[in-house]
Structures are given as C-alpha cells and as structure tokens.
Fold:
Amino acid sequence: MKSKNTTVLKALHLPTHVVITAKLYLLLLAIYTVFRLLLFFTCLPKMGDATLGDILTAFGIGVRFDCVVIGFAIALPVVLITIMSFIGKTYKALTIATTTILTIILVPTFAVCAADVPYFNQFFIHFNSAAFDGLEGNESVVTKMIFQEARFSLMIVLTIVVSIAFGIVAHRIMSKTPLTPKHYISKSIYTVLLLMLMFAGMRSNLNFKTRPIHTGIAYFGNNQFLNQLGLNPVFVFLNSFTHTDEEKLELMDTPTALSKIQERYGINNPNTHYPLARTVSYQQPPRHLNVVLILMESMSANNMARHGNTKKLTPFLDSLADKSLYFDNCYTMGNRTCSGMYSTITAYPSLFDKQPMYGTPIRQYNTLPLELKKHGYNTTFFLSHDKNFDNSNGFLLANGYDKVFSQEDYPAQEIKNTWGVCDEYLLNFALQEINTMAQKGNPFLATILTISNHPPYYFDPSFAFRNSKDEEKIVEYADAMLQNFFAKAQKESWFDSTIFVLIADHGNAQDITYPLPLSYFHAPLMFYAPAIIAPQTNNNMANQIDAFPTIMGMLRLPHTANYLGMDLGSTTREYACIMNVSGYAIMDNEWMLYCKKNTLEKRLYKYRSLSTTNYINEEKERAERMDKYGKEMWQTTQYILDKHATLVKDTTAAKP
Structure:
C-alpha cells in the first residue's frame, strides 16, 4: 500500500527536495524559537512594560532573522538533496553524509544560541566576538568559569540534547520522505521557486535596491529588550566578526577633532609627536599622600540607597559616600573589567569592542602609577585571579606597577572558584601588604580589583544575608567586606595620610530603559580621606577617565598629562561619554544622546525621568553639540593610538 505521504506529494506534485527543505526549515525555526523563548522567560524581570502585540512583533521579526541563518546553514545540504531528487533514487551513504553535514553545520549555531542566554542576561547584549577577547592564554580560566557557573553548564547540556535530537529528526526526514517520480519540468520549476524563496529568506527581501537584513531591523519600539529579542544570536555573532580589532574609528575628520580637543584642554603649543601632552603644575606645594584605589567589580551606582535602591544592599558604601567627596553622576567608559582597569589608570576611553590591554608590544602610557613613581611612590596592584587573564599582569607591569599580586600568591585552600579568592581574603591580604609598603617610608599607590560580585558567585555560609536573590546577596557581601577593610585600615598609622578612591570597573544591567543600560555605566566615584577631604556631593558630570587627573590634582604633583581625563577639582566636565560594542551615548544632567554603531540612527532622551520620547527633531542643535563632543574625544583617541603617542618619551610636553 502506498503511504499517505506519497499520495499527498503526487497530488501536489511537490518534489522530494522541496518537501525535505520545508521540513528542515520548520524544524530549525522551532529550535531557534525554543531558544528565543528561553531568553524571553529568563529576561522577564528586565522586560518592563510591553503589550502582547509588541511581544508577538519581536517573535515575528525573529522568524525573519532565523530564516537568514537557516538559509545559509542548509544551502549545501539542499544542493545534495536536490541532486538525489532529480536522480530519483535514495542512496543510504549520501543520505547519511547529508545528515552529517547538516549536523556539523548546525550544532555550532545551537551552541551559540545556548551561550547567548546567560551572556545576554549578564551584559544585555547578544553573544559576540568581544566574548573571546582575552581568551588566548586564558582558556583554563574561561573553562572553569563555564563549568562553575550553573547557567553555562545547563546551556552545555541543552546544546547536547538539542543537537542529538536534531540529528535524529533530520535523519528521519531525509530517509523517510518518499521520492517523487521524475517529472523534470515540474521539478525544475519548483527548484527555481525554492531557490528564490531561500534567497529571499537569506536577504529578507527580493528588492535589490534595499539593503539585506541588518540588526537595525529588529528595533521597532522603545522596549530595549524586545528590540533585541528578535535578533538571532548566530546572526549577531557572525556579524560581529566583520569588524575586527584593526578596524579604525572614523566618526569625524581627525584634524578637526584633534584641534577641538587641544582647544578644550588648553594645549596652545602642541608637540608634533605628542599632540595631547602638556605639563601640569600647581601653585600650592605637593602633598605626597598615599593612594588606595579600589576598583569595585560590577558595583553599579543603582545598588546604592542614595540612587534610589530600597533593598539595603550597600549600607556601608552609602555611609562612606556621605563622608566623602562623592560624584553623583560618574559613568564608566565601557562595560567590561578590562576597560575599567584601563580607563582608570590611563585616563583614556576604550573604543567599542576592542580589548585595550592587549598588543604586541604592549602599549605604554603616562599612567597614574607611572607618574606617581616619578615622585618616589611604590606601586602595587592586587588581583584575585590568574594574573594573565586579559593580559593584566603584562599590561600593569609595563605601565608603572612594581608588583602585581594574583592567584598564585595565595594559599590553595583560599581559591574559591575560577576567579580565585573572595573579597574577604583579597582585602585582608592587600591590607597586610599595604602595611609592609608603609614601613618602607615611601608614599604608595595600592590598587585593588575586587571580584566577588562577578558570577560564578561564592557565598560565605556564615554570612547573614538580608535578600534572597543571588545577585543581591553578593552585593551585600561585597559591601560588608569593604566595611571590614576600612574598619581595620583606620587603625593603621598610614590611614590619616591616605586618600581612598573607590570607583566601579563597570555596573550591571538593572535598568534597561535605553539601548545602553545606564545602570551598566553609572558608577559610584568617591574620594575619602577624613583628615584631608571635606565631605561634599558633586552633581557635575564625570567619567571614569577623570579619576587619575583628579587624584593628581589632590596630591598637587606636577606630571605629564598625556590623557583625555579631567581634574574634577578644577574643571567641570560638560558631558559624560559611554560606549559599548553596539553604540555610544553622550550625557549631561538632563539629556542623553544615543547613537547606534555603524548607522546614522540617533535618539535624544530626557533620561532623568526615564522618558523614551525621542526629541532628536525638536532639539537638533543640542544633539549636534553633544554628538561632536563625544566624537572629538573618541576620534582623537583613535589618532593617538595610531600614532603610538600614548607615552611621552621626552620632556617636550606643551605647557597649557
């Protein structure tokens, strides 16, 4: 008896290869939709207000992006299937080979979709090439992080399950779909139509006068999560490799940008080789005070009660801010730790998705530790983890630090996870070493990068938590460990002659009202020295790159200022600037201009009220001023990097 499938195919005259291709499309659409649903449900707390219509629109856009990925992925197998269909015979070996090719091609796409779920939850951007920055030489660290973080482990299991299920179902589709008779004319017509439909899916349109599908198509409203939900992670991942680290920033005319920056920074007679370099001196005598710089992992200002958080996550930081010179409106330059370390000590912004601490040879700057060493300071950096991760050890030693303490310097029993020791041990260890440095009689710079507030989290079983969510509990813990550190430090003889500087390396994605989550960039910045600095809250705009110049201003130490940061004690920053892999933003106390990378799309928001109204048409002049400000800074940075002018090697710096 003939099967029902054969009867249907004969009635419709659909060739075998068309039926198989259609089934594969439906199967893969179902798989990618499952991954999209998984992302949707894990991000529900971040989604905010959304209508059912908006949600369905996002999933509908997702089908378009999925079809692009599917079209490219199955192109070769479809050719093989078509050949079999025209021959009119099924060859077991060819069927197995085609299924194998399909599986080999598609399993990596499943892996990307699975990895995208925890990655998106962490960074609020899809999995992209930036995830591999710093991987070389650090494979063991990354591997440990993956297997110690439950979310990543679950995604590995899911990838394996989906891959096996796909292989089984795909083979069944190949082997069980009946062959149709040799009607070459009808088969040819159907083949042409099939190829046209596949090509249309790969472009997402057949209009050659318009661009093929691109990421901007996914953005359809003001809900920033739904704007990204429709993107297929594989599409984003592969697209991110089209712009390599060698890509040069071209935001505006370089000579114009450089000229404007020199004017803004008062560089009247610039040096040809070092166009930013100028000698900074002070009328008052220098103060050789110690500096303890604490970079707080993922410590968004949004965690603090003074910025509206009601969960009592940071009672100590809030109390310390009240006793410090505190900058309410400070923003980090990027959303990665390497960017935070780099920008804080060099006073240079990082550019899009580039890893700033790599290079052959390692790039050198007139950094905070290097300039302090010229005044007799001892300089030390404290890491919790492998010193080679993100090329930290090499970059820090090349840029003025005498010693970098890291995981290899700590007892094995104190290593809690892939990120090494927890904050309690790290801060206690740093305190002991600082005491040793103080005994040498020279002033010192001690820089500490905390780590506990980075997944996978380690929880001290003896610690009493007020909140239940892991992301909140770990902030409580990090805050308490800082309190313990200061309680011990204030008993030391060097305490009263020390400036403590606290700033986040970056924040985390809590508020996702805008394409660049402001909570990922809004950072506490405080200068605490009760015997030296009067408590004050400063509401002016500030950037992470301003910490270094402001420290030098407080110390009144003459130095070569070859950077783009500003001394916040003597200068008012007009705008704060932020940037990540997807775009950039420029902000003042009321307005935020957002610009999407590689497009002309710009939006102007009143971000203080969390308004999603785009005022770009009503405030064109304002938007243009803001855009120029940011472009001038970033384009000048690109020029300085290109000219290898980050380290002044002579004494010819200009005088302002």
The mean pLDDT is 88. The chain has two domains: 4-240, 272-568. The longest strand covers residues 536-543.
